[in-house]
Fold each of these.
Amino acid sequence: MYEALKQIIDNIVDKSRSVRILFNAEEWTSTIPSRPGWYWIKTNTPIQVLENVGAPSSRAHVNIPVTIGSTLRLAGMAIMPPGDRSYVIYNGEATNLKARAREHVEGHSATYCLGLLEYDSLQEYDWTFSYITLAELGLADSTSKQLRIIVEQAWRAEYGWPILCKK
């Protein structure tokens, strides 16, 4: 089983595509498919900036400063920024990658997401949404949440825990 998961994770990294997040235009999501798959969000935003953004306006959104504080207690497991280069800040799985990308930027009142548009100070940094669909990996293009969660967790075990992921 480990070898099969490792192969999927390697393929995710090798075959994924990335789109630069544009905060003032929705067309950045035009190439992201509305299909199930995995994604991760990268930024070059310093942790100190993230720690000072304040609480979100929606209770459903990630409380960035609180989540960072609890994630950093995972000493040695958290993905840390390598200087001023981009690093993975969040990863996950989704039934609809395009909708999930929009939620992380625009926010959603009933979904755990970043809601990045709420924070003007974050928009001066680079943000990237990387993704791959199940179909692109030759996996059954089903909505198997169990498969997506297993691979999501295996990715975190291999590459580290993104500082804005709480589960």
Amino acid sequence: MKFRRKSESDAQAAQEASDAAAAAAEPVFGPYDVDSLPEGGPERVDLGSLLVAPSEGRELRLQVDEATGAVQAVMLAAADGMIEMRAFAAPRNGDLWSDVRAQIALETTQKGGTVAERDGRFGPELVCSMPVRTPTGEAAVQPSRVIGVNGPRWFLRATLLGRPALEKEGAEEWEDAIAEVVVRRGAEAMMVGEPLPVTVPSGARRLS
């Protein structure tokens, strides 16, 4: 009996099949690209470039520039905190978050604040403290956590304010809300760093 020696092409095909099977078995975590969204999941509010799942106890708000009518940010807000989300055009295989982290750190320190980088659920994140003035004129400090996610030709920046910015261990539900976000980049050519357009659904609450 003769045994055929496995060729390099056979070995390569077997390895590719093994890699594909392993990739298929791996769980998919968000935020998601609209073209790779797994079946099922919650219903989401379609805001154009962002699809956001309603979150119990949190109100969906849109920050709108009254001069232009353009949406500047999408927010989920509750009594104890808020998430502010913005999506931007990015290189196909780039790491825009590395550049943005450095820019945020520089701007924060230039304004008298402090910033520290740490590993979080979505990778590197920034913990910032910025000196501010209250409506009554008193000096205060505003904490924030800035999370960035690099996607296929898009970048999502989520900023946590309030309690979830201070208590990492108690912010899982807020992070879950970020993980359910879907980004729709679109096929049109855009400059790197250009905000992806957000549309306002009827009945949405606007904030100037």
Amino acid sequence: MFSAANLELLYEDTNNRQRNLTRYELEQTLRFMLEEFEESFIIIDALDECFQTQELLDFLANLVSWEIVDLHVLATSRREINIEVFISPLITGQLSTQDWDTDADIELYIHKRLQDDIKLRKWCENLKLQEEIEETILSDAQGM
């Protein structure tokens, strides 16, 4: 049985020997901790923005292989083929894909900022300039 005391001993061991835990040790610690809960949730947002995407995908595959009862994993990402291909075999529940109209959200945000921000409000005096600013930022955002 894994406990807070085990976690504390692990911390003290690494701290005393002035070393970092290996990836394996971190994963096993997480595994032991997850097995202690009746239900666990792991949420990973913006998987596509991770600098080490493949490492994270490998970790997710490892996590699924543990077959921990009542472990729920939610990962969000923009549609990228390499992520979809890797994740598809791991899915045991539901997969939901939705195309959001992010451009409309970005446009609304830009417009509101130009109206409300004291430093930016001066640009709204000229409606044509305001529209040009909004269009330029929106086209450069590319749905980000």
Amino acid sequence: MTNFFTYKICMMAAFVTGCFFLSGCENDIRQVQELGKKKTSVEEALNMESFMSEKGRMKAKLKAPLMLHYQGDSSKFTFPKSLHVDFFDSTLNIESQLFAKYGQYMENQDKVYLRDSVVVFNVKGDTLFCDDLWWDQTKQIFYTDKHILIHKLSGDIIPGDGLTARQDFTKYTIIRPYNSFLHYDDSIMPAN
């Protein structure tokens, strides 16, 4: 009878202990879902300067006060506080320059999206102003389907919608130019 009594006590103790384990294993469903999510890590660089080369030849220099590198499924670099790029010819002379208040480089596409006060100018004095521009590094071209203005050194202003241009900004095509061209005289323009 003692064996039976001991057996019942052991079984009762196992049952009670099992009940404690079952009631203590309650998980918050949100916490479990958070464990399964991929986390994106962010690297930050201040006052950065980067050089881009191709086949051992320097092509461009990028400067930005802040760069954020998001690592995840698709790696990207953002420049939320502006960026400036100098493009070089084969003798390392600057052939064109780019400025924008915001930029985002999509590493897997080899493209840069620029927005907010985008300015591109070349050594001939031609200057492109737009709010939205793509830079395809593989094809070495700029393009947009948004409104653009080109100020030429001669004083002509060419407005239009959409543009495709070489990276050195020596040749460009305006997709939908406006019918009228404007001209300004340097003597009436305010000094910079």
